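Handoff note, outgoing to incoming analyst
You'll be picking up this chain. Sequence as last confirmed:
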Amino acid sequence: MNYSSSISFFFFIILLVQLISISSATYNEQDQNKKSPLDVDLPVGDIGLDDSFASSEILQSDEWPSSSYYHRRCPNKNVEKIINKKVKEWVDKDYKIAPSLLRLHYHDCAVRGCDGSILLNNEGSERRANVSKTLRGFEMIDDIKAELEKECPETVSCADILAAAARDATVLLGGEYWDVPFGRKDGRVSIGKEADIVPMGHDNVTTLLEFFQSMGLEVSDLVILSGAHTIGRTSCAQVQDRIYNYKGTGKPDPSINEKYLNFLQRRCRWASEDAELDAETPWKFDNMYYKNLQNGLGLLPTDQLLLSDKRTEPIAKALASMPSFLYGQIFGASMKKFGKVNVLSGDEGEIRTNCNFVNSHSY
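Most recent structure output, in case you need it:
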């Protein structure tokens, strides 16, 4: 076994031990509650990190986080079941919207935290920013919110809806279920210029690591959550420089697989076209993304860089070598952690009655 293989195996063991401890902690919590948080036709895994990630201020509150948050506030309705039913309806009509929900949740949490600010639809908001023009899924969230307002008025936040919908959409494409703690409040501020901080596939690894660390996340989270690119597509405008004029050389990126490069140059003649992020299984949530990287099939520059940086390479190789279901559980654990970034609770936010606008009494 060479040095690189030894390091990859080492990280594989670390990730496996982390997952086992996560599963054990979650099982103990469920055993105490004696009640499943979600009564729907989804795989039961409830994989998640313990709540130590949340700030001490949040932990001192009985408001957040809790998978049973809406059991007390909406006792005669299953909030998660309502959300899941709506997500299924939308994905059945257009399965390509599933990865869009995951991306929408990412853009929300990456700016100001997971507060639903990406959903606000006013002049100068994050939603109106140039980097948000290709985001989809807003109508689905509006549909879910309208249904929940009928069943349980002024109770379920838009931020919580988005977090649960992203999870359910991922599961519908083959991902593993993860427990979503609830109790997020909706933010009242959304500034378009702030959306420019969201990485768009052209940053170096150091910049990405700094961005994730600013949210309280780690190197492993960057690599694990990058695997969301195992589903969905992106605009060819994001890759044209890489396949035609890499770093101003007038030549393509030499790390791209030759046959894949040929395909991309035919597919992406026009910036307005789309390309699948995963060249092999673009609409199935698995760990093929990492295997693709080993074959020079990463689409975005930031994808392929994960395999060329010593800080991320061992983790990416470890994720490529494990079964897809195990990666799915690790991804869910990291998503649960990500979903707690800078969450608003108590009087810090509100429960919007319409996800597009702050409540009128907030002015």
